[in-house]
Amino acid sequence: MPVDDGAVVTSAATSNSLIGHEAAESTLLKAWNSSRFPHAWLISGPRGVGKATLAWKAARFVLSQSNSNEQAGGLFGDTPLEPDSLDTDPNSPIARRMASNGHSDFRLLTKREDKTVIQIEHTREIVDFAYMTPAEGGWKVILIDSVDDMNHNSANALLKALEEPPSKALFLLISHAPGRLLPTIRSRCRALKLARVPKNGIVSLLGDLRPTLSDEEKSVLAALGDGSPGRAIHFADQGAVDLYRALVELASNAHRLDMSLVMKMGDQLAKKGAEDAFAILSQMIDQALQRAIKAAAVGRPLDDILPGDGGVWARLVLPERISQWADARGDIMGFLDKAGAPAHLGRKHVLVNAFIRLEQAAQAR
Fold first, then answer.
1. Cα–Cα distance between 344 and 346 in angstroms, integer?
2. Whole-number pLDDT of residue 227
3. How far apart are CA 165 and CA 307, in angstroms?
4. What is the greatest pairwise CA distance in the chain?
5. At what angle do helices 275-298 and 229-237 cross, to 10 degrees?
6. Are 77 and 84 in contact (CB under 8 A)?
7. Please, which domain of life does this record's source organism belong to (predicted)?
8. Please, are residues 143 and 59 in contact by the beta-carbon 8 Å criterion?
């Protein structure tokens, strides 16, 4: 069941753990308690920041409230107390049925594994579902992850339901790039934008979810996560700390690379099952170069992720060579993006080319 990005996808369907988004949770809860709950919410923000976790949490809450409101209110049938939290029991029958796609009033819409977009026929099925009478007497909830994956026809099919919303139907739309959506879709939804999570929040989450990590590893992963808990957790599970150490070692001698080390890294990342590790290295190279270029542009020192690594990148990207390094970054990422592309270039091949371009940029002083 594909939900959001990174390692968080495996727990989003049943997790109440959401770091740094108390304001967003409060907004949802206040809207619910106001009795004027919007029929559609657009939850946006960087990848891995917690959008899917919040969307699933809201969906479980709404369906749990629907169920509880059917039962007697107070001791003498009076009005139930307003809920003061979106938290629900992740092991409840409702949560378990939702996570297994077995709840009759809940639907998850994602692109199929063999497709590049959400197909219009699948969108129409969801829209038809929204107009059906709730089977369990409360709300119907449709979670779309992500609406960015809809093609033009699918987006228009969804828009019709948003323009004429069915009674007691809730649409939760996840978007990584809301600016690319149809303006009419954005205008029919209540916007809920999630910001990047502070480093200390990610460190705390890593301590809870990956307790075997050392303090240094948690700090490094939180920095590499760049405000994204999902990215940090995914990096932890793929051994990103050791990979980043190897990258910094190569960068420290970028003007005269030890190609035997580059080849060794290429051999490791070319193995079957190393696709995620290769993607992580690509992201870390991009992140490091972007950080160095931005720091050089404003004349500020780079904070260390590992002891001394800020100086390594700062000595490479000098203020007077920002333009050349911006070009080099584009070339390097262009090489790395070719791994697994239609040209079927091997990961080792593109990695070697990327590091040769890094060396060329370092030597051009």
1. 6
2. 93
3. 55
4. 81
5. 130
6. no
7. Bacteria
8. yes
